[in-house]
Amino acid sequence: MDGVLYHGNQLLPGVKDFVEWLKREKKQFLFLTNSASPTPQELSDRLASMGLPGIPPSNFYTSALATAKFLQSQKPEGGKCFVLGTSGLTYTLYEHGFSMSDVDPDYVVIGSEGPSHSFEAMQKALSLITKGNAKLIGTNHDTDSIGEGGVRVLGPGCFLAALEVASGKKAFTCGKPSSLMMGYAQGYLGLPKEDICIIGDRMDTDILAGTSAQIDPVLVMSGVTNTDNLYRDAYRPYLVLNGVSELAFSVPPW
């Protein structure tokens, strides 16, 4: 969402027009985010505070939801998780039938950066993975993100990498670019792939996610991708735009 709809706490130019076009044309849409920290309600409130009210929580899908849905598919009866992440992630897991525990958990779940990612907590996670039977799960493998004031902060991928190296075990991640999250989003929309596109600003998550899931990826140049890194990868976007507003003004009405 950051880099596509807004930067920091400021909506990008044309975003209001784009959302109005989605509603006017009765387009089904989801705002996907790799962040596992906010709940859909918090995301709805955040956009409203930026001047974009009226988007219900049901139009947001987070990597926390994708992770909880995956774990629920593996253990329908529920289970126990040791979580390094924020309250938004633990709340989502709890809603899907999982309790939080550091005693013989089924999963160690690494979410977005936060104060819980201490050395002691990482050491505990490593012990649960190596001495116990806990499986290592990541909400996403983003190595960094942009925090307040444009400061670059460590992402879940950094902590996952450390635990993978130390444990010798591979993590399973659920957020973009995993086609798992794309499949969940497609199922949520109830549309065939041919009628869906994914719009994003990152080649390594958004565009790769669409390519892997065989859903047309649309790149907007309003975020982290620029002309220097646009052609670095083997895969390409289906369409390149300056921003989402171009969709509202370039798509024919039929």
Protein described:
With 254 residues, this protein is an alpha/beta fold. It has helices at residues 15-24, 40-49, 63-74, 87-95, 119-130, 156-167, 179-189, 203-213, 245-250, and strands spanning 6-7, 10-11, 31-33, 60-62, 79-84, 98-100, 107-110, 135-138, 144-146, 152-154, 172-173, 197-200, 216-220, 239-241. It contains 9 helices and 14 strands. The strands form 5 sheets. Strands 6-5-7-8-11 form a 5-stranded parallel β-sheet, sandwiched between helices. The chain has a 3-stranded parallel β-sheet with strand order 12-13-14, with helices on one face. Helix 3 (63-74) packs parallel to helix 4 (87-95), helix 5 packs across helix 6 and helix 7 (179-189) packs across helix 8. It is globular and about 55 Å long.
Q: Return the structural class.
A: alpha/beta
Quaternary organisation of the protein chains: single chain
Helix-strand sequence: EEHEHEHEHEEHEEEHEHEHEEH
Radius of gyration: 18 Å
The share of residues in helices is 25-40%
Number of helices: 9
Which overall shape is indicated by the principal axes computed on the Cα atoms?
globular
Q: Strand order, main sheet: write it out.
A: 6-5-7-8-11
How much of the polypeptide forms β-strand, as a percent range?
Answer: 15-25%
Instruction: Note the gap between the termini.
Output: 28 Å
Q: How is the main sheet built?
A: 5 strands, parallel
List low-pLDDT spans.
Answer: none
Number of E-type strands: 14
Summarize model confidence as the mean pLDDT.
Answer: 92
